[in-house]
Write a structure and sequence with these properties.
The protein is mostly helical and 390 residues long. It has helices at 4-8, 17-26, 29-43, 52-71, 79-97, 102-128, 133-181, 205-222, 228-234, 239-252, 255-263, 270-288, 293-319, 326-329, 331-351, 355-377, 380-384. The longest helix has 49 residues, at 133-181.
Length: 390
């Protein structure tokens, strides 16, 4: 029996997962290098310490706004064109970031953030329209993690070698790879067959609850991650060591999406989501009360592991509210809304070393996320939709 999703997806011309998996980490390069260039900008006197949270929030917010704006018209646009345009703007933004001027740097990072947001929307929408979107996301995560781990490891060494200009120059070259990969993306997304009622997606309060649950979850993580270099400095841990910790933590997450793929929904959705929130809370507590490299490493690993386990379930949850992938394509956008809110809320606390308040903030956001997920999981659509099966 053919399911609604199988009818709605252009199965004969699916985008090869290799290309999706290579494009996906490009959209998160800016997020990955953020703690290192912020730390360097403070050290070089390019940005005052009290404003770095707002600068980080601005880049994340630009990603979120561009992602959600793009998601609203994806059905009517060429995915290939969007990827090419986003990579062109990202290259320009990276080159502009090489100029040692505070205002130019801020504007350039906003441009780059917007470009990465468009790319993320295009990749997420393409993945959402595969026959098994959760499997597609899992495969993408497994391909992304080694790339992002390598990026986190190399970035502090590039900054130490050539400064911020060297880092952003390398980013521009990497984004050039996206222009090449764009040629394998679909020219147009195939619309759903007539009669399925999928042409217009109604606004669903329950779906929005799921979206904001994802945003709150992401915010709890980004209350901490952009400030790892700052937190480490308070206990005499160098930026290079933080790079090793971050890259090791990204590699530590590799089993997480594989575990989610193996479990599927045989244990339901509530247990994986609740477990991920508990692990995130433990990681936040460990990082923000760290007195040694051991506890900081353990906490950082948990902060990376928990979302990687949750994401396939959260992504699958959004695909159940419509078969066009409209909500699912906003998935990166709501992650970035949270990623923007986190540093904006915690920036002053981090600058003043008030890590206890950061911990309270992170745990409060996790409680809010849990409450919103409960609302979404109680929707009848969740019980009726096809399950994510291994």
């Amino acid at each position: 029996m053919v399911t609604v999703r199988e009818q709605a997806v252009h199965a004969p011309d699916q985008t090869p997962m290799l290309y999706l998996g290579l494009l996906a980490p490009l959209g998160y390069l800016g997020v990955t290098v953020l703690p290192f260039w912020l730390g360097a900008a403070i050290h070089d006197g390019l940005l005052p310490a009290r404003t770095v949270g707002l600068v980080a929030a601005g880049e994340m917010l630009a990603m979120a706004v561009a992602n959600m704006a793009t998601s609203s018209f994806l059905v009517r646009r060429s995915i290939k064109m969007l990827v090419r345009a986003s990579m062109t703007v990202a290259i320009f933004g990276s080159l502009l970031s090489m100029m040692p001027h505070p205002l130019v740097l801020v504007v350039a990072r906003l441009l780059s953030g917007a470009a990465f947001g468009v790319l993320n929307a295009a990749v997420a929408a393409t993945a959402a329209r595969q026959i098994q979107p959760q499997r597609s996301l899992t495969a993408m995560l497994l391909m992304m993690m080694p790339v992002l781990a390598l990026t986190a490891f190399v970035t502090p060494h590039v900054v130490a070698w050539r400064g911020l200009a060297g880092l952003f120059g390398v980013l521009a070259m990497i984004c050039g790879l996206g222009l090449f990969l764009a040629r394998k993306m679909p020219d147009r997304e195939t619309p759903a067959p007539a009669g399925l009622g999928l042409g217009r997606v109604s606004l669903s309060p329950v779906a929005l609850a799921a979206c904001f649950a994802i945003a709150a979850y992401s915010a709890s993580q980004y209350v901490i991650l952009p400030f790892l270099v700052v937190i480490g400095a308070h206990i005499s841990i160098s930026a290079a060591t933080i790079g090793i910790i971050a890259s090791s933590s990204v590699l530590f997450t590799l089993p997480a999406p594989a575990l989610a793929n193996a479990l599927g929904e045989r244990i339901g959705l509530a247990l994986p989501i609740g477990s991920s929130l508990a692990v995130m809370g433990l990681g936040a507590a460990l990082v923000l009360t760290s007195t040694s490299v051991v506890t900081l490493t353990a906490g950082t690993m948990l902060l990376y592991f928990a979302p990687s386990f949750l994401l396939p379930y959260a992504f699958g949850l959004l695909t159940r509210f419509d078969n066009q992938g409209s909500y699912a394509s906003t998935f990166p956008g709501f992650l970035m809304v949270g990623a923007a809110a986190g540093p904006a809320l915690a920036g002053t606390f981090a600058a003043e070393g008030e890590f206890g308040r950061m911990a309270i903030l992170a745990i409060g956001l996790q409680i809010a996320s849990l409450a919103l997920f409960v609302v979404a999981l109680r929707s009848p659509k969740i019980a009726l939709a096809p399950q994510f099966t291994p």
